[in-house]
């Protein structure tokens, strides 16, 4: 797929590579990086600076609009500080996003490399399973899964992963299939290297560029999906806050307390936009065919 | 042509089989199983639960249950809803129109708007317009649909009072205009993500077409820029978009689920959530199958249309 992958330069350490330089010259990618880093810093440092705990209920201060006293983003229907909840929710939502990235990329890589390396019947079966998973609207499948499990952050990350691995599988399969008859693979066979070694140490690293791009976009997707199912009430359960479940119930107070909806939604949008920008920058950086804009 | 059709149909059926398998596994391997809701009611004894299980055939081995369920599915018996005893197919059918109306309107909006943006982006590649649209598209892809819906309701219903905040029609009115007033906001909200995707793909597709020889030939033989654009470029760049429309279906359907919830639109998405809430397994399962079926039919149709209108594709 990418010309860079067959290029020996792809084996150069990432820090010295042309890809990194291209990434750093990509304006959107840098903006995305700043957005994500700022948000991450806010979520992890913010709670220590706020005078409120995310679970502290103050019924005298219900529905305080943003800017009331020390409540910079206002309070919710129970008088809890929205800023404190938002930052804690951010930790959870982003942790789910990263967990999904690791799990989904792992599953996708294994399925893709096995399918691409063996080809034939193995590939036919595995890729039909990929197609079948892609035929479900993932929100439907996710909700069906979420409704029957104990919805903690770990389980939520697992089921989102279960509906997010197909893209990576396809990318890796295509890449490995195109490489498996090349000389270096034949050489590895003749050296007597095990199939597993050839698959994961010789073939898989060639797809690292597209995998990194897909992984970044998976974080964005996972944060969105977590928000969807938590908003619908099947995701992470209160009192544990997540960006999605902070929005659950916001609709009924839309007229009187719109900040309940606006604030967490903005956080989701900023996080997802940030990861999408980074993904776009990485795509351009790894793909030597597109030169800038 | 026939052979191609047969093989595509075969592939789709195989997919449907796998889909049914996954769906069945998801719902039956879940802890608790279909009868977990009864275990919650205080008056229930274990014998009563066992009795219900044997009446519904839920005590049989899973493969037997699957075969039984699937063989009924094939002949159009999708079971009956636990909630009100109605046939599943009937329940789904009564919600299908609302969803198709919403998705159809959203698709019309996203195709027309997205294609237009895409074509202009391609023609003015590298311009401020192109760059702005690229950035806007990526932001649009990052906004949670339901949140965009909430904001739209806040602005257009609660603050400005221009449009109704939910439902499909006003009770006692039900004129076409009334339907339109209810339809416009959810359709636009649902279309947003797709407008972004369409504009991106249309841009790429148009760029591919513009650089081809026949476009240069058309210009060289003296056709005006406008005529080349309308007659040669637009049509040809739209062809790959038909496939895209098929591939986008799962996403639009998923988006419809959330949009319907926010706008209390009486479609399949709402039904799905309600059925989940009631642990109404047959309906949940039926909706999973129906949505996959819709997606497969959509993809099949898209492939066939492309094959029919694009003479470059040979069907052997």
TrEMBL record, chain A:
InterPro entries: BP-dependent_transpt_permease (IPR050366), MetI-like (IPR000515), MetI-like_sf (IPR035906), OppC_N (IPR025966). PANTHER family: D,D-DIPEPTIDE TRANSPORT SYSTEM PERMEASE PROTEIN DDPC-RELATED, OLIGOPEPTIDE TRANSPORT SYSTEM PERMEASE PROTEIN APPC. The chain crosses the membrane at residues 28-50, 95-118, 125-148, 154-172, 203-236, 256-279. It is found in: Cell membrane. Residues 90-279 form the ABC transmembrane type-1 domain. It is a multi-pass membrane protein. It comes from Alloyangia pacifica. This is Peptide/nickel transport system permease protein. Keywords: Cell membrane, Membrane, Peptide transport, Protein transport, Transmembrane, Transmembrane helix, Transport. GO terms for biological process: peptide transport; protein transport; transmembrane transport. Belongs to the binding-protein-dependent transport system permease family. One of its GO terms (cellular component) is plasma membrane.
Automatic annotation (TrEMBL), chain B:
It is found in: Cell membrane. GO terms for biological process: transmembrane transport. Its main location: membrane. The keyword Disulfide bond does not apply. The keyword Kinase does not apply. Residues 96-306 form the ABC transmembrane type-1 domain. Gene3D superfamilies: MetI-like. The chain crosses the membrane at residues 12-30, 96-123, 135-159, 179-198, 233-263, 283-309. It comes from the Bacteria. Keywords: Cell membrane, Membrane, Transmembrane, Transmembrane helix, Transport. Belongs to the binding-protein-dependent transport system permease family. This is Peptide/nickel transport system permease protein. It comes from Alloyangia pacifica.
């Amino acid at each position: 797929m990418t010309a860079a992958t067959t290029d020996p330069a792809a084996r150069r350490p990432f820090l010295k590579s042309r890809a990194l330089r291209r990434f750093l010259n990509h304006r959107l990618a840098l903006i995305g990086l700043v957005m994500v880093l700022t948000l991450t810093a806010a979520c992890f440092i913010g709670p220590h600076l706020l005078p409120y705990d995310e679970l502290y209920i103050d019924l005298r201060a219900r529905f305080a609009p943003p800017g009331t006293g020390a409540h910079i983003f206002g309070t919710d229907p129970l008088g809890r500080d929205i800023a404190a909840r938002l930052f804690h929710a951010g930790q959870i939502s982003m942790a789910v996003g990263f967990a999904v990235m690791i799990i989904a990329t792992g599953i996708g890589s294994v399925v893709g490399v096995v399918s691409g390396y063996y080809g034939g019947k193995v590939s036919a079966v595995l890729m039909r399973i990929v197609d079948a998973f892609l035929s479900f609207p993932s929100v439907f499948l996710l909700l069906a899964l979420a409704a029957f499990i104990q919805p903690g952050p770990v389980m939520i990350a697992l089921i989102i992963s279960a509906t997010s691995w197909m893209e990576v599988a396809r990318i890796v399969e295509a890449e490995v299939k195109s490489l498996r008859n090349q000389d270096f693979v034949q050489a590895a066979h003749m050296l007597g290297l095990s199939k597993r070694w050839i698959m994961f140490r010789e073939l898989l690293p060639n797809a690292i560029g597209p995998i990194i791009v897909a992984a970044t976009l998976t974080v964005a997707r996972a944060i969105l999906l977590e928000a969807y199912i938590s908003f619908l009430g099947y995701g992470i359960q209160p009192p544990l806050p997540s960006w999605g479940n902070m929005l659950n119930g916001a609709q009924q107070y839309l007229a009187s307390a719109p900040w309940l909806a606006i604030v967490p939604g903005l956080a989701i949008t900023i996080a997802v936009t940030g990861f999408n920008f980074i993904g776009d920058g990485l795509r351009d950086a790894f793909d030597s065919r597109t030169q800038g804009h | 042509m026939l052979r191609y059709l047969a093989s595509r149909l075969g592939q789709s059926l195989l997919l449907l089989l796998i889909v049914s398998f996954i769906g069945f596994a998801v719902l039956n391997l879940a802890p608790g199983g279909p009868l977990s809701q009864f275990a919650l009611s205080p008056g229930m004894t274990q014998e009563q639960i066992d009795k219900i299980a044997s009446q519904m055939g839920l005590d049989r081995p899973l493969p037997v249950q699957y075969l039984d369920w699937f063989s009924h599915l094939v002949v159009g018996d999708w079971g009956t809803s636990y909630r009100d005893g109605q046939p599943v197919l009937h329940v789904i059918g009564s919600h299908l129109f609302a969803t198709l109306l919403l998705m159809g309107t959203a698709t019309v909006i996203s195709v027309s708007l997205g294609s237009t943006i895409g074509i202009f982006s391609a023609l003015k590649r590298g311009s401020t317009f192109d760059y702005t649209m690229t950035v806007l598209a990526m932001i649009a892809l990052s906004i949670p649909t339901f949140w965009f819906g909430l904001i739209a309701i806040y602005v257009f219903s609660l603050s400005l009072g221009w449009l109704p905040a939910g439902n499909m029609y006003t009770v006692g009115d039900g004129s076409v205009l009334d339907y339109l007033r209810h339809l416009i906001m959810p359709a636009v909200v649902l279309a947003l993500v797709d407008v972004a995707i369409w504009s991106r793909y249309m841009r790429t597709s148009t760029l591919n077409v513009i650089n081809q020889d026949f476009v240069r030939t058309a210009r060289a033989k003296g056709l005006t820029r406008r005529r080349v654009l309308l007659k040669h470029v637009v049509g040809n760049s739209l062809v790959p978009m038909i496939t895209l429309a098929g591939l986008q279906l799962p996403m639009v359907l998923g988006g419809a689920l959330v949009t319907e919830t926010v706008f209390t639109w009486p479609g399949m998405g709402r039904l799905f959530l309600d059925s989940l809430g009631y642990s109404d397994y047959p309906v949940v399962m039926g909706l999973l199958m129906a949505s996959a079926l819709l997606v497969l039919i959509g993809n099949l149709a898209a492939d066939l249309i492309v094959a029919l209108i694009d003479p470059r594709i040979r069907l052997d």
